[in-house]
């Protein structure tokens, strides 16, 4: 008998739900100035972004949010869940655009905390993925914000403070903090890990005490550009007894090859539509009954967020 478990924490986090609700309500409002632009992807999940493209929203891409604004002449601009800097906000206002802010409330809070730390004369060492919107926003706050890289140890800092993207793993941050502390003895750190991400990471770490039915597999479902999904995958790989897979949706699975597993556990990122996880769970429950021909007919991509 195969054990199939779905993590308790699946589906959208409140930040993603909030962003999607804001845009869906906006679409219902006929008085909203058109065209409507998204300043980058609303969240890091292509199913969601493709849906908004289908309903007529233009998603802008570019090297920075400031540059993306140059592509807009009129209409409405939506700030994505990852937040924007004051410079971007002011530029959008000066362009006379109608602004809709879908920034996650938690991200907003972390930006305010960093602004306060800068006012208190801290220099910020920021850990994050180059080009990620949260990194872009942090770096735009002040010249006293530095992205942590190989040259960080050469900086001369008086009051360094370690900050980071909200979806980093506590493992990574502890490791980087310990390393940098050897150079900057007075280094402080700000806890910025989003509690939703942390809870999902913690439930994965708890699997270290779990008695698996072997062979076992952990599947992380999420977009490959999603930082929190990637972090879940990296953590899952630390659980040595299990195989791990990181997939976007059921189309990426070889169902017949999964039959060898006695236990399969599903986790998902905070921007992964719950329907994708549920669909996979339902299929895995009936895994032994699935034949090669049925797999082909099952694999028709669903509309996950409508
Ligand atoms: S993962 Fe956390 S920080 Fe990111 S959007 Fe969701 S609630 Fe906000």
Describe this structure in words.
This protein is of the alpha/beta class. It has three domains: 3-12 and 196-298, Cobalt-precorrin-4 Transmethylase, domain 1, CATH 3.40.1010.20; 14-104, Rossmann fold (3-Layer(aba) Sandwich); 106-193, Cobalt-precorrin-4 Transmethylase, domain 1 (3-Layer(aba) Sandwich). The protein is 37% helix and 16% strand. It is built from eleven helices and twelve strands. It has helices at 14-28, 46-54, 65-69, 86-94, 105-119, 133-141, 170-181, 195-205, 227-236, 274-285, 292-298, and strands at residues 3-6, 36-38, 58-59, 76-79, 98-101, 123-127, 145-147, 160-164, 188-189, 216-221, 242-247, 263-268. It has a four-stranded parallel beta sheet, sandwiched between helices. A four-stranded parallel beta sheet has the order 3-2-4-5, with helices on both faces. Helix 7 (170-181) links the parallel strand 8 and strand 9 (188-189). The protein is flat. The model has no long low-confidence stretch (mean pLDDT 92). The chain binds iron/sulfur cluster (SF4). Residues 13-16, 81, 104, 106-107, 166-167, 194, 196-197, 228, 270 line the site of iron/sulfur cluster (SF4).
């Amino acid at each position: 008998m195969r054990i199939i478990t779905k993590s308790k924490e699946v589906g959208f986090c409140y930040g993603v739900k909030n962003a999607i609700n804001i845009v869906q309500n906006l679409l219902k409002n006929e008085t909203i100035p058109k065209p409507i632009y998204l300043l980058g992807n609303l969240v890091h999940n292509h199913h969601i972004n493709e849906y908004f493209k289908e309903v007529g929203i233009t998603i802008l891409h570019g090297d920075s949010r400031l540059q993306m604004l140059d592509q807009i002449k009129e209409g409405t601009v939506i700030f994505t869940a990852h937040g924007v800097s004051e410079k971007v906000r002011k530029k959008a206002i000066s362009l006379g655009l109608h602004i809709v802010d879908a920034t996650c409330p938690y991200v907003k809070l972390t930006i305010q905390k960093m602004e306060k730390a800068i006012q208190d004369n801290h220099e910020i060492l920021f850990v994050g993925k180059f080009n990620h919107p949260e990194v872009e926003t942090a770096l735009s706050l002040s010249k006293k914000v530095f992205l942590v890289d190989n040259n960080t140890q050469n900086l001369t800092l008086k009051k360094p403070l370690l900050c980071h993207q909200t979806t980093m793993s506590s493992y990574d941050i502890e490791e980087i903090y310990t390393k940098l502390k050897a150079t900057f003895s007075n280094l402080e750190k700000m806890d910025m890990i989003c509690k939703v991400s942390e809870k999902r990471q913690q439930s994965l770490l708890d699997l270290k005490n779990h008695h698996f039915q072997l062979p076992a597999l952990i599947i992380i479902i999420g977009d490959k550009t999603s930082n929190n999904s990637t972090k879940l995958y990296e953590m899952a790989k630390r659980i040595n007894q299990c195989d791990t897979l990181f997939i976007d949706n059921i189309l990426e699975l070889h169902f017949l090859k999964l039959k060898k597993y006695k236990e399969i556990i599903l986790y998902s990122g905070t921007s992964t539509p719950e329907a994708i996880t549920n669909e996979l769970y339902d299929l895995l429950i009936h895994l032994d009954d699935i034949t090669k021909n049925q797999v082909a007919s099952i694999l028709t991509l669903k509309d996950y967020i409508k």
